[in-house]
Design a protein that fits this description.
heterodimer; A: 47% strand; B: 0% strand; binds zinc ion
Chain lengths: 274, 258
Amino acid sequence: MIRNLKYEPRVLMHTKPGKAHPLIQLVLTRKTTILLWLSVVFFFAPILNEVSAQRRFSRNYPATRNVRLQLLNRSGTVEVEGWDRPEISISAYLENPAANIAPQSLSGTIYIDLVKDNQGRNGVGNVNFVIKVPRLSIVDIETRMGNLSVTNINGGLVRAMISTEGDITLTNIGAGAVDAQNGIGDIFFDGEMRSGGHYRFTSIRGNINLRIPFNSSFRLVATAPSTRNISLGSFGNSNMNLLGNGRSVVGRFGNGSSTLTITNHRGSISFIRR
Amino acid sequence: MRVLMQNTLKRELRTKMNCGECQKKISVFLDNELDEITSATVRSHLALCAECAKVCEDFAAILESCRLEKPSEILPPNSQALWCRISNTIESEINPGPKSAEVQKSWFGRVWQVSFSQAGSAVLGIALISSLLTVVGIRNYIEPTAEDFTSRTDASQTTIEKVLSKVGLADTPQEARMRRFQEQRAAIEYWNNRVQQRRVQWDNKMRDAFDRNLNEIDQAVGEYTTILQQDPQDDLSGEMLDSALNEKMNLLRAFSDL
Ligand SMILES: [Zn+2]
C-alpha cells in the first residue's frame, strides 16, 4: 500500500502535463488528493529509509587471494559466491528483531559469529547473507538453521555445516577439501575432486547428490544404512563392493587419488555424471 | 552508574589473572592442589569470567565421568580425547588457513591437556599404546578402504594388539567400542542438561527444528542399537551408532550456547 503511494506520485512528477496519459490527466484534476499523497510520501519516506538502513548491513574488506571466511549464523540463509576481485563483500539482510552483527578481520580471516554476538538474547530474527569472496578463498560457514550455498570456489577448503534443518548447495567447486554436514535436508555437490583431496558429506535425513566429472578419481565409503539407497550411476564398477547387505558401498574409482566419505543415516546417496 | 562500577570491578579482578593463566590452572584447581591464594584467585576469576567458568565446568564433567568408571576402565584415560586431538591435527593439515581461537580451544583439546598431565607415567605408556591403536582408526579416516568397517574386529587386530588385550592392557574392539559409547553418552547427558536450561530462551521455530532433528537422530540411534543387540558383531552398525551419537553430541553442544 505504501509502495503504491510512493510510486504513483513519482510517475506524476516525471510526466510532462502536455503528454500525460489520459488516466493521469484524470488524476491530475484531483489536485487535493495528489497533494495529500505527496505530503504522506514526504512525511514517511525518511522513516522508511531509516528502517531499511537498520535492516541491511553491508561491508567490504580488501582481501588476499586466499583469504579465509569464517561465518557462524543462527538462522537464515547464507550465499557465498567466488568472484575475481581482491575483496570480500558482505551483505546481510536482518529480519526483526534484528540481530547484532560485528564482523572482525584478523590476520587474513574474516570472522562473523552471530551466536556470540547475540548470546543471551531472547528472540533474534533471521539473518540472510550474500557474500562475495575471491575464488581461492577458504570458506567455512555454519548455521544452526537455514540453507547454505557456495558457488565458484577453488580454494583449500569449503566447509558447510547446518546443525539442524536446511539444504546445502555447493556449485562449481574445485576445492582441495570439502566437508558438508546437515541434519534434515538435502546436500548437492557439483564440482571437481582434486588429487589428494578429502571430500566428506554427512546427513541425517535427506538426499545427498554428487555431480562430478567422469574422470574423477577417488576411494569411496558411502553408507546409507536405513534406506540402502545408494545409486552409483556411471560410477559403478567392479572395484565397488557392497557391504552389510547393501547398507554400504566401499571401493575405488579411477586410481583412487582422493577420498570420498558419504554418510546418510536415514536418506539416499546418488552420483550424477557431470 | 552502578553497572559501570561493577564492570570496572570485574575487569580489575579479572586482570589479576588472565584467561590463559586461569585455564592452565583449572585441572590442578579441581584436584584441590593449588595453594590457598592461587586457588582464591582462580575462584574469583571463574566467578567473573563466563568463558573460563565454562571450561571449568567441562573439565569437571569429564573428571566426574572418569571417576564413575572402575579404575581399570580409566586406562587409557584419554583415548577419545587423543583421537580428537589427532583428528584436529589432520583437519588442520587439510585446512591450510589459520585456525580460529575457538577451534584451538575446543572442548576435547582442553580435556586432552588436562587428562594427559594428570595421567601418571605408568598410564603414559599405556596411553601411547592406545594412541597407536587410535592411529589405526585415524588412518582409516584419511584413507577409507574396504577395511573401514572391519579394522577393529578380531580378524584384523595386529599381533601386538591381541597380546595386549589378552593380558588386559588393551581393550578388545568390542570393549573399546562399549567404552566409547559410555563416554559419548556421558557427554550427551552433560550437554543435554545445559540445553534444557537454555531452550526456554529460543523462539518456537528454533525449538521445533531442534526437536525434529534430535528425534531423527534418536531414531537412527535406536535402529543401530536394536541391530547391535541382536548382533554385537555388526561392525557397520557399531560405526554408525558411533557417528550418530557424535551427531547428537554436536547438536546438543551447538545449541548449548544459543
Ligand atoms: Zn577468563
